[in-house]
Amino acid sequence: MGSPTFDLPPDTGAPPARRSRRKQARPGELLEAALDLFVSKGYAATRVEEVARLAGVSKGTLFLYFPSKQELFKALVRHVLADRFAEWSLELDNYQDDTASLIHYCYEVWWTRIGATKACGLPHLVMAEAHNFPEIAAFYRQEVVVPGNRLVERILQRGIDRGELRAMDVGYGTTLVLAPLIFCAIAQSSGGLCLPNPQFDVPAFLRLQADTLVRGLAPDAQGALP
Questions:
Q1: How far apart are CA 78 and CA 68, in angstroms?
Q2: What angle, 0 to 180 degrees and rounded to 10, lies between the N-to-C axes of helices 99-110 and 170-189?
């Protein structure tokens, strides 16, 4: 089943009635409530009744938009993560600066749009519950992991083609780029449990990571990649 669409009503020039405005806002309110509960309680422990209650609607109203908890979770993942890949791909198509600046920019964008938001808890949730809910893990891999890997592969291949990065297996290179983001997502969603101290500056760490990657993958760097 595909994800539901939430189109706004046509502009008639007059303000919509209060009931109409409320109806249009409900899907977003439900997804916001679902994000709060899924991230704080996990997939298994979250009940649709709680999501509806937090959003201020009945369970029956929730089911009008999302026929099951699994479909609610899928819509949430698409809303906060998967649907952004088209936007990010377009940004990459139009990016004019060099690859070093692009890698720094990607880390900054990830932090501001994902890492510093509640959405950073979703990767941790999926990894924690993948064994018990393999269908959720498979969905997340298809909708988020695969397109995310492809986007990073495009970034690295762009750098190779422009002579700004040395030739490499872009699969290994993609893992190098994404590993610190996964670490930061887990750190954020676990309350900083795996960080060395409470004052750990994640944006500063990501800037250092981006600089280290750029230097290590430069054409004149010492050593060879597999």
A1: 15
A2: 30
Retrieve residue 19's tokens.
Answer: 């009931």
Provide the CB-side half-sphere exposure for 121 (13 A, CA).
18
pLDDT confidence of 72, banded at 50, 70, 90?
A: very high
Q: Are 42 and 51 in contact (CB under 8 A)?
A: no
CA dist 84 to 59, 79, 106, Å?
Answer: 28, 8, 13
Q: Which of 159, 200, 169 minimizes the C-alpha distance to 183?
A: 200
**Residue 128 burial (CB < 10 Å; 0-12/13-18/19+)?**
middle
Cα–Cα distance measured from residue 63 to residue 60, given in angstroms and rounded to the nearest whole number: 5
* CA 180 distance to own-chain centroid: 14
DSSP letter assigned to residue 133: -
Query: What does the pLDDT look like over 3-52, one tens digit per residue?
Result: 444 433 344 444 444 444 455 558 999 999 999 999 999 999 999 999 99
Q: Looking at the whole model, is its pTM more than 0.90? A: no
CA distance 47 to 191: 23
Using CA atoms of 172, 175, 180, 184 in order, give the dihedral in degrees to the nearest 10.
Answer: -170
Alpha carbon 144 to chain centroid distance? 7
Copy the structure tokens of residue 103: 């890698």
